[in-house]
Design goal:
Mean pLDDT: 97
CATH class of one domain: Alpha Beta
Largest sheet: 11 strands, mixed
Number of strands: 11
Strand content: 5-15%
Helix content: 25-40%
CATH superfamily of one domain: Amidase signature (AS) domain
Structural class: alpha/beta
Bound molecules: glutamine
Oligomer: single chain
Strand order of the largest sheet: 1-3-2-4-6-5-10-11-9-7-8
Number of helices: 15
Distance between the termini: 30 Å
Shape: globular
């Protein structure tokens, strides 16, 4: 713990929003004392981990990498984090990310752009960029990210590690700052399938504090050793389009060949075009974030900027403290929800989401697993992607569909800074981990 705290303190990748050094050293001393007394310790006891700065951990800063919450301290602890603490894991750091999860590069933050673990000229990916880089550089053993439309899977791919977005609801969202509540998921980033399995087991479970949480069964160590996947599918239109970089396409087709050589049947599937997926996701995500962030007006939380009356105080607090990207989303979200637009845009988005879910139900009658690249491109240079927000949204083309479908999906590193995405039907994380092991 001490060693890793030192590394985090000195790191130049901008992964740290705040260090939890006092708490971490205190918890580590307790584990030491247990070991000295010869007491048995649990699987996660003494294991250092990181937390994306959108989770509550009582008494510590929870900034969402935003000016608005720069000085905010958590009043309580998120369920997922509490479960890790109860298992003896040691939180080291609140990690840099895109403000409120808004972004795909970890540049939309007041703490400075997170630098990629493999090449510091490149973006780390986002929004859970600090979490991915901390794991990749061994500053933490695992980190807890948040994934609304790809924020765990995409930076995992960009930094050559594993990242799991579980089935929606498998892990309680209580204490995770809401971005888009209908697709927000809590999940782990780590360097091995085994670590992903262990951390997922600890955090999973129904929680009375989150009405959308679900029950699930534990995934045992043995359960993921023997592959049972017989048929794999992939979306033809993800691979046959102009947006995919030739290298990403070649890597993916090579994975498909490998799967075939291992005796698995491969089927081509049809899916919605990328522009429909991205526009549906951003319509709903912006609508939900406009609603969720309306509470941040400087009265109950955050960095209030006083003005002549209450209305002006709200306006100045929000316009001075939110980033350009967050404001773009609040304005966009309020527009799609407003009279004259909501039927045409928001309700249409909801209808397409249902069609996407129906499409997946049909797919999983034919195949056990769906494979896809995580992103159409490899990570861009820091600074480049900020110039074109629309291009940044389009880079989420391969992750957002699975989010809208609320499916479990895992990024498997390929050593190429892109990653392979393995998706299964709802609640079938076990099958994903099995298949990931089988592909190793
Ligand atoms: N890049 C996507 C967005 O900006 C996903 C972010 C996330 O999953 N938090 O909405």
């Amino acid at each position: 713990v001490k060693e890793k705290l030192e590394l985090l303190k000195k790191n130049t990748h901008n992964t740290v929003n705040s260090l939890l050094d006092t708490l971490a050293l205190d918890l580590a001393a307790k584990v030491d004392a247990k070991i000295t007394k010869g007491e048995e310790i649990g699987l996660l006891e003494g294991i250092p981990f990181g937390i994306k700065d959108v989770y509550m951990l009582q008494g510590t800063f929870a900034t969402a990498s935003s000016n608005l919450l720069k000085n905010y301290k958590s009043a309580y602890t998120a369920t997922a984090i509490q479960k890790l603490l109860d298992a003896g894991a040691i939180p080291l750091v609140k990690e840099n990310c895109d403000s409120f999860g808004h972004g795909s590069s970890s540049e939309n933050t007041i703490f400075g752009a997170v630098k990629n673990a493999v090449n510091t000229d490149l973006v780390a990916g986002g929004s859970s960029g600090g979490s991915a880089v901390n794991v990749a550089l061994d500053y933490t053993v695992f980190s807890i990210g948040g994934d609304t439309g790809g924020s765990i899977r995409q930076p995992a791919g960009y930094n050559n590690i594993y990242g799991l977005k579980p089935t929606y609801g498998r892990i309680s969202r209580y204490g995770l700052m809401a971005y888009a509540s209908s697709t927000d998921c809590v999940g782990p980033l780590a360097k091995s399938i085994e670590d992903i399995r262990i951390v997922l087991n600890v955090m999973s479970g129904k929680d009375a504090k989150d009405q959308t949480s679900i029950t699930s069964s534990e995934i045992t160590e043995d359960a993921i050793l023997k592959n049972t996947v017989k048929t794999v599918g992939y979306f033809k239109n993800f691979i046959e389009n102009d947006a995919i970089a030739p290298k990403v396409k070649a890597d993916f087709l090579q994975s498909i060949e490998k799967v075939k050589l291992k005796g698995i049947k491969v089927k081509e599937l049809d899916f919605f075009p990328s522009d429909i997926l991205v526009s549906t996701y951003y319509t709903l995500a912006m609508a939900e974030t406009a609603s969720n962030l309306s509470r941040l007006d400087g009265t109950n939380y955050g960095n209030r900027i006083e003005d002549k009356n209450l209305k002006e105080t709200y306006a100045v607090t929000r316009s001075e403290n939110f980033s350009e990207e967050t404001k773009r989303r609040i304005v966009g979200g309020n527009q799609v929800l407003s009279q004259g637009f909501s039927d045409e845009i928001y309700l249409k988005g909801l209808a397409i989401r249902d069609q996407i879910a129906a499409n997946f139900t049909k797919d999983f009658e034919e195949v056990d697993i769906i494979l896809s690249p995580v992103t159409p491109m490899s990570p861009p240079k820091i600074g480049d992607s900020l110039k074109d927000p629309l291009a940044m949204y389009l880079s989420d083309a391969y992750t957002v569909g699975f989010s809208l479908g609320q499916l479990p999906t895992l990024t498997v590193p390929q050593g190429t800074q892109t990653g392979l995405q393995i998706t299964a039907a709802k609640n079938n994380e076990e099958l994903i981990l099995k298949f990931a092991n089988f592909l190793k």
